[in-house]
Amino acid sequence: MQKQCQPNVSLGLVNKVVRHLRDEAFIETGEDGGFRLRDPLKLLFAWRDVYRFDRHERRGYFTLSQGQKLRDALARLELQTGGFAAYAAFSAADFQAPHVRQPKTWLYVREEDISLFEELVEAKRWIRARIWWC
Question: Which of 62, 66, 71 has its CA nearest to residue 125?
């Protein structure tokens, strides 16, 4: 399982996750020593219930790159960060349900890779101006 994990997590962490999933009855061990999910939807709902989107810093960017050029740049970003950049929200779902379209691309990018992201995607930080009326 460690070979399947990105980005290169330790065997100790893999063991810890497997034990937790087993303790919570999300997985069952097979006769071959492997394991499988008992109820994938139950695990997904459990994750949804504890996930906190507000823990992440949100930044807006603008780029003229689009379509295949944007996808290629994001693929290079994923390769150069060693897996520390990933699609999120609807952008991740787009791979599973390509009929869902939305105008934004959502990503998780590690703080130290932000400048690489900006360079590869040719992105400029978008800061919404605040206008105060008296």
Answer: 62
> What amino acid occupies position 6?
Q
- Give residue-wise pLDDT tens across range 23-56: 999 998 888 878 888 999 999 999 889 888 777 7
Interior/surface letters 42-67, b for 16+ CB within 10 angstroms, e for the rest? ebeeeeeeeeeeeeeeeeebebebee
Q: What is the CA radius of gyration of the chain?
A: 19
| β-bridge mates for residue 36, sequence order | 28
Residue 89 region by backbone torsions, left for phi larger than 0, else alpha for psi between -120 and 50, else beta: left
Largest CA distance in the chain: 71
- Rounded to 5°, the CA angle 69-70-71 comes to 95
